[in-house]
Design brief:
Length: about 475
């Protein structure tokens, strides 16, 4: 079947080993798993999926909420629920298209029956045998037949003209499919395909507490298999799927979970131990990285309009042993916002604007976000990005740097915003990112003055970064 996926959404990420040496505690990836109780797993999937698709909840919250109430599920069953729900959200549009062709009455079935079929069809698309899935999902005969008819429906999808096929095969809303085509051209299908893969679990070593090797040793002692990230010099891929928040090394602040692309964006700041502003600090993912770059010295001003995130940032800073951060809640616009920034005007050596954006670069982790995004939201993001860049540029001192970043892959939120800014602010010029990453890493990251990362080209989430220098 053309749309069949190779990776099974419910399989473990770490390969199973043939048996742990005696006397050694088996790692989670080595323990035998008990068979899934399919009826319980299906019920939990239906609840979580329904709350995302029919009640508009965010997928991570819906799963958290559902699984909290299902204390009777074993850990492999909880993992199966998460993976099946995420798997379906990644393939939602494809699955609906195929089922509406494979099942003569799919569109008129009641919602709960449609959802059972969707979950089952998604599992088949990820490579599970349709007969087994039909039995485990207790499908009625016409629904089971529809699963068997998925290959023909997939052939019908393949036969559509490319422009019509792309949004359905990529499971993207039409307006986003257009944006992907504008941004990636002939690579759009590959880009979207990689966005629909599961993201790796990536940690950043907190260099204030030890380097990457020390963290790797520590994680191995905690029975977590790791490998170094290919691009970021401080990253580790956690190959054992575990709840990283429960690790002792995490509680001791030795690591933060942070995508490799985000780590590279943080590297562009190259923060000296003087005065640095993280203007959209959120819960502090990059703030903590900048604090480590500054070796915990100087003043790191972390600003945001979101009180809850600022509180998270403070907690994380404590855990990470960071004490050069000044977290400040600021008004989001107007004269009060300007007044809050006055003391920092023209004073900062670096200002990072990690702007709010469409999040199109993080669809691997938040596959449901695409169904909430509208063209109007996108326009709103671009307007806000331009306004934030112009406002926070005033904090950069002569000779200082303004770093603009997003987790979007779309040109209109990235290059276009920077070009618009440069046209209105001739005192700023572009510093090519290669000058900050060093020759070897720059070579791997690729050509161009900006950082432009995507799952299909770099294996990271999608990130954009630009470094702009203010004239002396
Ligand atoms: C992409 S998130 C930042 C992520 C964060 N830098 C990290 O690495 O974890 C964008 C942040 O911008 C904040 N924001 C939105 N409007 C803002 C404004 N006018 N001033 C400052 N921050 C703003 C949002 O609250 C959000 O936390």
């Amino acid at each position: 079947m053309a749309t069949q996926r190779k990776s099974r959404p419910h399989s473990r990420s770490a390969p199973k080993k043939s048996g742990a040496p005696s006397g050694k505690k088996p790692s989670p990836s080595e323990r035998p798993e008990r068979p899934l109780r399919e009826d319980l797993v299906l019920q939990a999937c239906l609840e979580a999926y329904g709350s995302v698709r029919h009640e508009g909840r965010m997928a991570d919250r819906a799963l958290d909420f559902t699984l909290r109430r299902k204390a009777n599920l074993y850990s492999n069953e909880r993992r199966a629920v998460a993976e099946r729900v995420y798997g379906l959200l990644r393939r939602q549009r494809t699955v609906d298209f195929l089922l509406s062709r494979a099942h003569p009455r799919f569109d008129s079935l009641e919602t709960s029956r449609q959802d059972v079929l969707r979950l089952a069809a998604s599992r088949v698309l990820y490579g599970e045998p349709h007969g087994l899935v039909a039995r485990q999902s207790a499908l009625a005969p016409p629904d089971a037949q529809a699963l068997g008819a998925l290959p023909e429906a997939a052939a019908a999808l393949e036969a559509l003209p490319a422009r019509e096929r792309f949004p359905i095969a990529a499971s993207l809303p039409d307006f986003l499919a257009d944006r992907f085509l504008q941004t990636f051209g002939r690579d759009a299908a590959r880009a979207a395909e990689a966005m629909n893969e599961r993201a790796p679990l990536v940690a950043r070593a907190n260099l204030l507490k030890g380097d990457r090797d020390a963290l790797a040793q520590r994680l191995k002692a905690e029975t977590v298999d790791v490998k170094p990230t290919p691009l970021s010099p401080m990253g580790l891929v956690l190959e054992t799927r575990i709840n990283a928040f429960s690790l002792e090394s995490f509680r001791e602040g030795m690591l933060e979970l942070q995508d490799e692309g985000s780590q590279l964006l943080g590297m562009l700041v190259d923060a000296p131990p003087t005065r640095v502003v993280d203007a959209c600090a959120g819960a502090g993912g990059k703030t903590l990285q900048l604090a480590a770059q500054m070796k915990n010295r100087g003043d790191l001003h972390a600003l945001d309009i979101d009180e809850r995130r600022m509180e998270d940032l403070k907690k994380r800073a404590r855990r990470a042993g960071v004490h050069n951060v000044r977290a400040q809640l600021i008004p989001h616009e107007g004269p009060e916002a300007d007044a809050a920034l006055t003391p920092l005007k023209g004073k900062a050596d670096r200002v990072l604007v990690d702007a709010p954006c469409s999040g199109t670069g993080t669809f691997r982790r938040k596959p449901d976000a695409r169904y909430r995004l509208t063209p109007e939201d996108l326009e709103m993001h671009v307007g806000r990005q331009k306004a934030l860049l112009a406002r926070f540029a005033t904090l950069v001192k002569p000779g200082g740097r303004l770093i603009y970043g997003t987790c979007s892959v779309l040109r209109e939120e990235n290059e276009n915003v920077v070009e618009d800014f440069l046209a209105k602010h001739p005192e700023f010029t572009v510093k090519p990112v290669a000058e900050l990453l060093g020759a070897e890493l720059a070579e791997k990251v690729g050509p161009g003055p900006f950082l432009r990362l995507a799952p299909h080209t770099h294996g990271t989430d999608g990130f954009f970064g630009a470094v702009l220098v203010r004239a002396k």
